[in-house]
Amino acid sequence: MKNLDIPKRGKGYPRLRIFAAFGFEQPYPVHAPEIWSTLLDAPAAAKKTGECEKTIGRMYEGAHKDKSFTNFLRFGPRKRMIFPFEAEAWLAGTQPKFVRKNELMHPFLRGEMPPTHQTDNPRHEPAPTGTRPSVTAIFLPPNAAK
User: Fold this and answer.
1) Residue 48: count of CB within 10 angstroms of its CB
2) Alpha helices for 9-146 (secondary structure H)
């Protein structure tokens, strides 16, 4: 949720902010039970639709002749997911019950922003730039290097 700019409120995250990040239009379908089912990754979407996993991945990227799954959520460089109701609508050949628009989605979920992996650990320092010291300078006492 940190990558989506959604702050934690109490014990959870605000549902309306999550719906906005996923690209749903207002009024948000907060009370629909099928909206809260688990998202499908490529293997689960392949199992649900009867297609092979590679075909689903090519549909996601637009490399397949069927460009139906262009509204997927990108959670990382290799993790793409869709909602189950979108897979069911694809099987039935109808519009999904809930409309999500790609242009309303958060840029991170569209794959336009890199993930921010920052740490508070002071031991994780950036790699030094410039020239590296020689091996002899590292292992020999200061007086022996002369």
Assistant:
1) 16
2) 15-22, 42-49, 53-61, 84-92, 107-110, 135-139
